[in-house]
Amino acid sequence: MITEIDLYGQEAGDSDVISLLTPAITFVNVRDCKDVTDASILAVAERCPNLKELHVANSKVTDTSISAIARKCRRLAGVTVAGCDITDAALARMPKLTTLDVKGCSKLTGAAFRSCGSNFEVLDVSGCCNLTDQTIVALAKENPALQHLSLSDCDNITDVAVKAVALYCPRLFYIALNNCARLTDISITALAHNCPLLLVCGMYC
Q1: What is the pTM assigned to this prediction?
Q2: Which of 31, 48, 79, 141 measures 20 to 30 Å from 124, CA to CA?
Q3: What is the pLDDT of residues 85-98, one digit of tens each?
Q4: Do the Cβ atoms of 113 and 136 come closer than 8 Å?
Q5: What is the distance between the alpha carbons of residues 112 and 131, in angstroms, rounded to a whole number?
Q6: Do residues 131 and 154 make contact, with C-beta atoms less than 8 angstroms apart?
Q7: 24 vs 1, 17, 200, CA distance in Å?
């Protein structure tokens, strides 16, 4: 029985994806499939109630199908929508997520994360330029199990946000802070003092 669909980087379209869907599917990866649209992911929402992971980065997917996934696939734990044209509405009703990649989704604001629960272990919000210290502080407080965080290219982030991450996320072992021009050595010091498991800290401007 097939439980996973992995078409990563292939020249696959909606018909290719839809033809493979069954209720047993728990994993769908159509990352970098430029011809995959909402039609495929709406079909996933209808036919794959046991879905746990969905990867649609750099496809033509929008709020329409991601919202349907949120409504229909209640076991969903991992989502990658990096580079997709989505807004806050797409992430509503996803309380069980442990992994979320929204890199480059520049329309997102802090409101996007208010209904995402408190289970994040991996979070990439690189390039989400509307996010503020207030959003990151709230995320840090609500997600103490966070291990992998990327805030690169988040222009509004200051030491306040990173200090909160250091204080509330003791399991952190990876953080990326590249091109965050408002950060200072205060952030590095806070991470060094509070995150004993930290192995990687990327920070260049």
Answers
A1: 0.96
A2: 48
A3: 999 999 988 989 99
A4: no
A5: 10
A6: yes
A7: 8, 14, 37
